[in-house]
Amino acid sequence: MKNFLITGGAGFIGSALVRFLINETEHTVVVVDKLSYAGNLSSLACVTENPRFKFERVDICDRAALDSVFSQHQPDCVMHLAAETHVDRSIDGPIAFIETNIVGTYQLLEAARHYWNALTGDRKKNFLFHHISTDEVFGDLDDTSAFFTEDTPYAPSSPYSATKASSDHLVRAWLRTYGLPVIVTNCSNNYGPYHFPEKLIPLTIINALAGKSLPVYGNGQQVRDWLYVEDHARALYTVVTRGKTGETYNIGGHNERQNIEVVETICCLLEELAPERKLTGLHNYKDLIRYVTDRPGHDQRYAIDARKIERELGWTPLETFESGMRKTVSWFLDNATWWQAILNDRYDGERLGLKK
Ligand code: NAD
Ligand code: TYD
Prior knowledge:
Layout lengths: L2 E5 L4 H13 L3 E6 L19 E5 L5 H11 L3 E4 L6 H6 L2 H24 L2 H6 L1 E7 L24 H20 L3 E6 L2 E2 L8 H10 L4 E4 L5 E3 L1 E2 H14 L5 E4 L4 E3 H15 L15 E4 L14 H7 L7 H14 L1 H11 L10
Parallel strand pairs: 1-2, 1-4, 2-3, 4-5, 5-6, 6-11, 7-10, 8-13
Antiparallel strand pairs: 9-12
């Protein structure tokens, strides 16, 4: 049994990972999260009463607080997910991304390094720092037959991806220079339950149910490679338990779709699963689609070659795009209290026309 320190555990992917660790394994978990606008303890409601779960409200930029968390909880493994993650916000205000993604990762690395240096024997030998990153560090692809491999050079486009790329470089430097045992994973776009309402898939579902327009940036032909979040959580656990220290693993779902196809898929699922929720007079959910001004610097295509993790660690996704999207739309229909509370109470959804 190990003790996992999960940063960003109250976010979308972090909470899926924590639910997996508590519900599917015997390990103990301490979540470190500052509860930014994107952090939500209600995403962890099903595990908070479990004695193997602990929560520390801490900003990863606060080195003294991190030192105290390490000394109090004595983790065997750090899984670092805390980050600012929304590309559009990074365009509006990059500083928060520089602070959390770069400076915060630096502070966490230093806290981990000092803690690890003081460990001895097997606890020192088996310690691991797993940095969770994105395929967006590779920039974008225009050739429809090309894929991102673990050796693709970094070429980030947005303030978000540039700060994630910086954090990846810091993590690898801490391995090379100080010997800190690290693993890096770079994953494609996730979707699924508890996805924050500003991202494409939840925004489309929630706006459609409210009879609001469904904004598609530019021509809608940009391609993302979608992975169901629970498949990602399982991949992360596979990597920390079976991966090789010092290695990088790409994680992806083999589900390339144009944005417009994603939005149309959601509309079709809503026609089937929620026909009664359609506004009177609306012929079809698809009638709500609106092409809007493109995102500056918009990446054209992301596509992951995930053969390394499949070959070396035996991980493959369980969900297809069709099965995962059906589960996701159903979850948002069944869990309106989760997203409605975010829209009502804490989230500046006005910016995206989401507020009730
Ligand atoms: P999210 O925005 O839903 O959650 C981020 C979490 O980090 C929140 O709980 C937030 O409160 C916390 N946080 C932010 N700043 C913090 C700080 N300074 N100190 C402590 N906690 C802080 O993000 P997500 O979509 O779950 O992504 C998690 C990680 O996975 C990120 O590192 C992201 O780059 C990476 N990733 C995301 C995707 C995706 O499609 N969402 C794909 C690949 C990789
Ligand atoms: P997003 O969910 O923000 O993830 P990322 O930018 O990390 O890929 O966006 C997914 C894609 O959908 C991206 O190409 C931008 C596009 N998009 C829209 O067309 N409309 C929207 O309202 C949003 C939020 C995104």
